[in-house]
Amino acid sequence: MINNKIKQMADKLIPEDLRSILLSVDSDVKWAILSDLSEGDKSFTELKKDLEIDNKSLSYNLYKLLENGVITHYYKHEFFKPDFSFYRLTNIGKGIIKSIDYIFYVPGDETQLETLVATDGSLKPAEPESGELVLMNIKPYTEVPSFSLTADKRNKIRLAKINANTADMTSKPSSQLELPPIGSNLGIK
């Protein structure tokens, strides 16, 4: 049982209603749904295909996200065509994604974040001796809206930041690496 002091301190940090929303995204399937929907509206069939999941599991997880207001469901009507239903992130769902992005980006002034990424987009740590590195500049979070990046690019940036901590930088000092224009690797203009 939680005592009053613990509840007061938890409420001070994050209000209970917000905690319940965050707790509603309690599985990898729900996170995958949010990630997929961050790229745009999707039908049940598109989500099922993208996530390679069975109907029952997808229905259950969509229902839970709908119930907590993280996603919404709507029908698209077109003349002479059957109606299609789609799912999309609500402002709450977008806020969850944006908050996660905020954790991985450096907010602040004009400081640039230099990150190493494997050029083939793999999830392995970058290897300087094999020439697989690309140094990219990322504008601060406040200048790079999270929804201008696809979920795949966001995940690569997150992984690159983690991989940069394990990469061996001894082969070439960062001052000697050539930097591409800001946003060139992200599709941002």
Question: What is the secondary structure topology, with strand pairs?
Answer:
Blueprint: H1 4-13, H2 16-24, H3 28-37, E1 42-43, H4 44-51, H5 55-67, E2 71-76, E3 84-89, H6 91-104, E4 113-118, E5 133-138, H7 151-166
Antiparallel strand pairs: 1-3, 2-3, 4-5
Q: In the CATH classification, which architecture of the largest domain applies? A: Orthogonal Bundle
CATH fold annotation of the largest domain = Arc Repressor Mutant, subunit A
CATH class designation of the largest domain:
Mainly Alpha
- The biggest beta sheet, please? 3 strands, antiparallel
Multimeric state: single chain
What would you call the structural class?
alpha+beta
Radius of gyration: 20 Å
Say which CATH homologous superfamily of the largest domain is assigned: Winged helix-like DNA-binding domain superfamily/Winged helix DNA-binding domain
Total of helices:
7
